[in-house]
């Protein structure tokens, strides 16, 4: 794995981190990329305020957001395999195969945390993610227990009209932000489901083995459903409080296990799911599917203002509803835990009218979240001028920070103008 020297992290300008005392942590104050996507190396010093990345298409803005998303559990905002993030060398077929690394200093309520993650060399055939926290080996799950990262990308524009699985995975990622153990439950459930499907496909119907797997699916499934319902209940109260310039969204969790929990004790639902899985062995073997379980749940979203399902709303209103959900989750997390998540908003501003752009910027600043926004044109972010955000110009895999302007309008030295190194 590529290693990163602590000296790659220059000290930010004195006072930069305290420019905005209302900013809620966590916030990335130092970021180093090595061999990641189109970046040979990149070093960037920041303060806790929102970060605006501008530059031409193809310069590497989204790649930088993806690097930040790897400071959380999972496969990042593109859902890519680890080897696909390896540096693509111009003019050379294939990727470098040398591994990549993302390192950062994250300011938290408990003080700064030094974190690094990356892929050991070996490419697509030998993918193994490495995570280090404060100099020791750690699991990716530990990152989720320390902070959360949420994102909205252009790939999510059709979320409300796509298959239910995409909405379910989206909602489960939201749940992770308040319940990091939710990811482990889902992983255990899906592993048991895959193993059961393999046994049925191969004709190996050992009742004891299948029964054990189905018991695991039932126990984890009920825990997953309960976590979804609990989170949805909390989120509904935030959504009901108002959209802050965005449409009110009404949500519902639609799934047989979730519905059963509304009227039965959890143990009864667990026993019922295990029994149904056992009864379905024959048809599941014939169809190659698993007909019962929490992997079939859907998230229903409705525009509160007109009563229209999100799938039938205009493209613009769907985008606004998606943002309303993510911002509501950020408000919920700040209320419950005292700090907002890191937000990654890729090409969001370009698809909002001026009124909603200004509303978005006001919400981000009031949240105290370190939001990362991308766009080709700086004028789109005029509402974040006057010291409300820090601006970074991305060109050809290099980054240059603009001057910081304090609330009085006085230019201050940037916390670090760092390019590809």
Low-confidence stretches: 1-23, 405-418
What is the CATH topology descriptor of the largest domain? Rossmann fold
According to CATH, what is the class of the largest domain? Alpha Beta
The main sheet orders its strands as 2-1-4-5-6-7
Distance between the termini: 19 Å
- Assign a percent range to the helix content: 25-40%
- Which range does the strand content fall in? 15-25%
Number of domains: 2
Assembly form of the protein: single chain
Quick one: how many beta strands? 17
CATH superfamily of the largest domain: P-loop containing nucleotide triphosphate hydrolases
Architecture (CATH level 2) name of the largest domain: 3-Layer(aba) Sandwich
Structural class: alpha+beta
* Helix and strand pattern: EEEHEEEEHEHHHEHHHEEHEHEEEEE
Outline? globular
Reported for the largest beta sheet, the result is:
6 strands, antiparallel
Radius of gyration: 23 Å
Descriptive report:
Mean pLDDT is 88; it is low at 1-23 and 405-418. This protein has helices at 61-69, 140-146, 164-178, 181-201, 207-240, 256-261, 266-279, 281-287, 315-337, 354-367, and strands spanning 27-36, 39-45, 51-54, 100-108, 111-119, 129-133, 136-138, 149-152, 249-254, 298-303, 308-309, 342-345, 371-375, 390-395, 398-401, 404-405, 411-412. 36% of the residues lie in helices and 21% in strands. Strand 10 (298-303) and strand 11 form a beta hairpin. Helix 5 (207-240) packs across helix 9 (315-337). Strands 2-1-4-5-6-7 form a six-stranded antiparallel β-sheet, covered by helices on one side. Strands 8-12-13-3-14-15 form a six-stranded mixed β-sheet, with helices on both faces. The two termini are 19 Å apart. It has 421 residues and is an alpha+beta fold. The chain folds into two domains: 1-147 and 339-421, P-loop containing nucleotide triphosphate hydrolases (Rossmann fold); 160-335, RecF/RecN/SMC, N-terminal domain (Glutathione S-transferase Yfyf (Class Pi), Chain A, domain 2), CATH 1.20.1050. The radius of gyration is 23 Å and the shape is globular.
């Amino acid at each position: 794995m590529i290693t990163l020297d602590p000296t790659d992290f220059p000290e930010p300008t004195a006072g930069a981190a305290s420019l905005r005392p209302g900013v809620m942590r966590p916030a990335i104050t130092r970021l180093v990329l090595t061999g990641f996507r189109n970046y040979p190396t990149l070093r960037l010093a920041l303060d806790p305020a929102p970060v605006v990345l501008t530059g031409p298409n193809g310069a590497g803005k989204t790649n930088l957001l993806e690097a930040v998303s790897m400071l959380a559990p999972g496969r990042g905002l593109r859902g890519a395999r680890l080897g696909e993030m390896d540096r693509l060398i111009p003019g050379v077929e294939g990727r470098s195969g040398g591994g990549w690394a993302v390192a950062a200093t994250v300011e938290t309520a408990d003080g700064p945390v030094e974190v690094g993650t990356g892929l050991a060399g070996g490419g697509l055939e030998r993918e193994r993610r490495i995570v280090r926290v404060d100099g020791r080996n750690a699991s990716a799950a530990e990152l989720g227990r320390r902070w959360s990262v949420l994102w909205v990308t252009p790939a999510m524009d059709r979320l409300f009209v796509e298959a239910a699985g995409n909405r379910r995975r989206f909602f489960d990622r939201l749940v992770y932000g308040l319940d990091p153990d939710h990811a482990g439950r889902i992983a255990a459930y899906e592993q048991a489901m895959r193993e059961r499907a393999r046994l049925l496909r191969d004709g190996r119907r050992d009742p004891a083995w299948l029964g054990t797997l189905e018991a695991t699916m039932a126990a984890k499934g009920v825990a997953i459903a309960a976590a979804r319902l609990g989170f949805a209940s909390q989120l509904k109260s935030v959504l009901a409080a108002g959209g802050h310039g965005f449409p009110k969204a009404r949500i519902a969790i639609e799934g047989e296990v979730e519905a059963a929990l509304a009227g039965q004790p959890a143990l009864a639902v667990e026993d019922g799911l295990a029994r149904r899985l056992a009864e379905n062995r024959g048809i599941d073997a014939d169809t190659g599917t698993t007909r019962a379980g929490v992997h079939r749940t859907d998230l229903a979203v409705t525009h509160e203002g007109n009563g229209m399902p999100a799938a039938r709303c205009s493209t613009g209103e769907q985008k606004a509803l998606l943002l309303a959900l993510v911002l509501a989750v950020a408000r919920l997390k700040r209320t419950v835990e005292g700090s907002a998540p890191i937000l990654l908003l890729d090409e969001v501003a370009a698809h909002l009218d001026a009124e909603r752009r200004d509303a978005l910027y006001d919400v981000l600043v009031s949240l105290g979240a370190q939001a990362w926004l991308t766009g080709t044109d700086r004028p789109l972010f005029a509402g974040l001028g006057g010291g409300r955000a820090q601006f970074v110009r991305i060109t050809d895999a290099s980054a240059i920070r603009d001057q910081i302007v304090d609330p009085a309008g006085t230019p201050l030295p940037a916390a670090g103008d760092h390019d590809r190194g």
